[in-house]
Amino acid sequence: MRRARLKHSRSLIVAIPIVVLIAMAGRASAQEPPPRIPLFAVDVHGTVPRFPSSPQLAESRGMTLAELPGAGLGLQLGLHLYPLRWRGVTFGIGAEVIGTRARQTPPPTNAGLRSTEEKFLSAAPQLSFNFGTGNGWSYLSGGIGLSQWSLLPAGEEPLPSDTERLKTINYGGGARWFAKPHLAFSFDVRFYAINPGSPYSNFPGTPRTTLMVIGAGVSFK
Q1: pLDDT at 31
Q2: C-alpha angle 199/204/209, rounded to 5°?
Q3: How far is residue 61's CA from residue 39's CA, in Å, rounded to a whole number?
Q4: 78-82 long-range contacts, Cβ below 8 Å, gap at least 24?
Q5: Is 116 in a helix, a strand, or coil?
């Protein structure tokens, strides 16, 4: 009986420090600060662009307003680096590539309208201001790059204005939420301020316009 009690007492002597250490470790981990924004992030977004609809744009391609496609779908890819942090702001540099397309097929009852296709391609470096932690952060960003904006009836050859490279300023913001260590849900709302295009033959140049694109998808770090 005494041996059993002695054995039980020794077990308690060994177990109590272990329990205390586990409790202290758990408390310490609970007090650990959240991770910082990582060194890099990669975005893969599906996008919904809202192409402008204006008489000036239709006139630049010899179309009617009813033939302009409007909304479309696309893909947005981005790579961003975060080399510098100052107080609550992490500064980022990176680049973005976006490609979008919209199509319009008139119903058979409108025989006078043509099927049309509109495309927007753009690539630009970006500077970003990021707020948050490695578990999730929001950002504001912008950059200056080049884009191609084509709009033509289906089956027709593109005009020189469809392949012209136009100076484009992009600006917007979004956020990333990392539910898993290296995978996040993310979204981005961006505006593309596109310079006017050059006139060609009897067609005036495309007007200066702003294209809004909403994107959502995943991010990796």
Answers
A1: 60
A2: 95
A3: 45
A4: 78/42, 78/43, 78/45, 78/126, 79/40, 79/41, 79/42, 79/43, 80/40, 80/41, 80/42, 80/43, 80/126, 80/128, 81/39, 81/40, 82/37, 82/38, 82/39, 82/40, 82/41, 82/130
A5: strand
Contact 102, 69 (CB under 8 A): yes
Residue located via tokens 């089956």: 155
The tens digit of pLDDT for each residue in 171-214 reads 999 999 998 989 999 999 999 999 998 888 888 888 899 999 99
Architecture of domain 40-220: Beta Barrel (2.40)
Residue type, 44: V
Helices (H) and strands (E) in the chain, counts: 3, 8
Domain boundaries along the sequence of the chain: 1-32, 40-220
Lookup result for tokens 């060994």? 14
> What's the predicted TM-score (pTM) here?
0.81
Tokens 């910082």 correspond to: 36
